[in-house]
Design goal:
heterodimer; A: mainly alpha; B: mainly alpha; two-stranded antiparallel sheet
């Protein structure tokens, strides 16, 4: 017997909600990336929990794939942030307003 | 081992090989090598796909399925990518990073093909992410232009949130059924009767939101006008056609394919989203002064029309959707090609005003765009009309008459903004000596002709095309 599914889902839901709140509240680009990572990892915890609950390995493989994807996404994000910084545009998303209409 | 995944393998190889010529010293090889490799690879993959038209084949232990839907979608993606390659030949974004540009473009197509043929939930997420990550970079490719960077960053943030929502939704679908295989999920849902199950309902809601972001359906469309306006125009055209098609086929694979037995649970939310997209897109497009931005709003509305086909959940709906998707790809590419041309010829080439009198100076482009815009507005006998007519008919048959009415009214409103550029195009030229800054190049001529031919051919050959679309829809829905 291990930890019951409910605890996995509680932790996962908490992480995901924290991430979502972070995306909505935070204005700094780096922290936005961080918040998105929290959301993805929240999903990972749920995947592992469900995987144990159903006693299949599908969820664990899915979680591994998600980790790779999350890493790729952060690399792109950081690259873009460096490019923006070189152009001396501020990193506050509210200041990104050249495109509107 | 069978060859069913060969088109995808060819595309992966193309994405890698396209990088090689850009290592050559500056000159012809470096300049023309990457686009040439991309064109050859894309055509080879398309030819291979055509040969695979037939019954379903499995590869990678069922993780990838090649059926008629996979083949049809692969051809749409490749057609869109080919036109994008031709449009990009002289694009400023590609000047000193040609290898990366074309390699990423083909990599995005790989992700799309994976989505179209995926046999499990992992493939849905992985494919969507491969194409998204490639496009984040492509949007920001003009790093010296603040608008392009801003578009890339906005797309990255919104896209990442969309992906996270999609992933959490897929997690819940897995949690409710205990399997990631789409075919097993379909069986489990039918046998256990999971209709109304809270975990599955929550999962479906999150998947709809996540894919809604990718398909740019309202209320997840706020990013679309900004990103579409800021990105390099060929990439915008690619996003409006192929990326939307990929998100739509993900909807089809997950909902119309695996979750068809709980159609009552997801039909209404999808119908509402389709209606919202039609309203938001058409209303937003009415007031735009920029042609590129108007096309962005138009593509939101078109996503709404396409989602009608998903929301019906019937064979007829999917068939009409697939036909409309083919037609939509041709007409939207044609409209964006004009933006790409004018952008290079004059300052402020994105605005509708800059089109003034262009039709008389360059009749070929003028005629192509006029045909495309008429088709988008849904004038008979063009393909846009046939597709919309069938989509609305399918909606009525699926007891979604209100949705068909919303679509028809939205379509009537859209005539107003689609006709405005046409009037300007064929009107008086205010300043005849409009200075040219760049030569658009031959690639755009070819692309323009291809898009125009696409619209005409999809209109004339509607009935054989519809037969193919029906077979593809059967591969999805019939067991």
């Amino acid at each position: 017997m291990g930890i019951s599914l409910m605890y996995y889902l509680l932790v996962s839901g908490g992480l995901f909600a924290l991430g979502l709140a972070g995306v909505l509240i935070r204005r700094n680009m780096l922290l936005l990336l961080l918040a998105v990572e929290l959301m993805l990892n929240g999903a990972n915890v749920a995947l592992i929990g469900f995987s144990r609950h159903w006693d299949v390995t599908d969820g664990q493989i899915f979680a591994l794939v998600v980790m790779v994807v999350a890493a790729a996404e952060v690399v792109i994000g950081l690259g873009l942030i460096v490019a923006v910084y070189r152009q001396r545009i501020v990193l506050d998303v509210d200041e990104l307003d050249q495109l509107k209409g | 081992m069978n060859i069913a995944a060969l088109p995808m393998m060819i595309l992966i190889a193309t994405a890698v090989v396209a990088l090689v010529p850009s290592l050559a010293p500056p000159g012809r090889v470096r300049h023309l090598g990457p686009p040439l490799v991309s064109i050859v690879g894309l055509v080879a993959a398309a030819g291979m796909s055509v040969l695979l038209w037939g019954d379903r084949q499995y590869t990678f232990y069922g993780a990838f399925r090649t059926d008629r839907l996979t083949v049809l979608m692969t051809l749409i993606f490749i057609a869109s990518a080919l036109v994008t390659v031709l449009m990009s030949l002289r694009e400023p974004a590609t000047v000193d990073r040609r290898g990366e540009y074309y390699s990423l473009l083909v990599a995005a197509v790989v992700g799309m093909v994976l989505v179209a043929g995926t046999g499990d939930l992992i493939g849905v997420f992985l494919g969507i992410e491969i194409l998204s990550v490639a496009l984040y970079v492509l949007c920001a490719m003009e790093v010296w232009r603040a608008r392009s960077l801003e578009a890339g960053l906005k797309y990255l943030i919104v896209g990442a949130v969309g992906s996270a929502l999609l992933l959490y939704g897929l997690t819940f679908v897995f949690g409710a059924t205990g399997s990631v295989s789409l075919e097993e999920i379909s069986d489990i849902v039918r046998v256990r009767g999971l209709g109304g199950e809270p975990l599955l309902m929550g999962g479906m809601a999150l998947v709809i939101a996540g894919l809604g972001f990718k398909a740019s359906a309202a209320p997840f469309h706020m990013w679309v006008p900004d990103v579409y306006e800021g990105a390099p125009t060929p990439i915008t055209a690619f996003m409006a056609t192929a990326v939307k098609a990929a998100a739509i086929v993900a909807f089809l694979r997950v909902f119309s394919g695996a979750l068809i037995d709980v159609v009552d649970d997801w039909q209404m939310p999808l119908a509402v989203i389709a209606a919202l997209a039609i309203i938001a897109g058409n209303v937003g497009a009415l007031v735009q002064q920029s042609f590129k931005r108007m096309m962005a709003y138009s593509s939101i509305a078109q996503a709404g029309y396409l989602l009608i086909g998903v929301a019906t959940g019937t064979l007829l709906g999917v068939r009409s959707l697939l036909y409309y998707l083919i037609a939509y790809t041709a007409m939207t590419l044609g409209a964006f090609i004009l933006v790409a041309i004018r952008e290079r010829e004059v300052e402020d080439g994105q605005s509708i005003a800059s089109l003034a009198g262009y039709g008389r100076r360059s009749p070929l482009h003028g005629v192509v765009v006029t045909v495309c815009l008429f088709a988008l507005a849904g004038f008979p006998p063009l393909s846009g009309f046939i597709g919309k007519f069938m989509l609305f008919g399918a909606a009525v048959e699926a007891d979604l008459t209100w949705l068909a009415v919303v679509g028809a009214v939205g379509s009537a409103v859209s005539v107003a903004y689609y006709l405005r550029p046409i009037f300007v195009l064929w009107g008086e030229d205010p300043e005849p000596g409009n200075a040219r800054t760049f030569d658009p190049g031959d690639g755009l001529w070819v692309a323009s002709v291809l898009a125009g031919l696409g619209v005409v051919v999809t209109s004339i050959l509607a009935s054989p095309l519809l037969d193919y679309c029906r077979e593809a829809a059967q591969a999805l829905i019939a067991p």
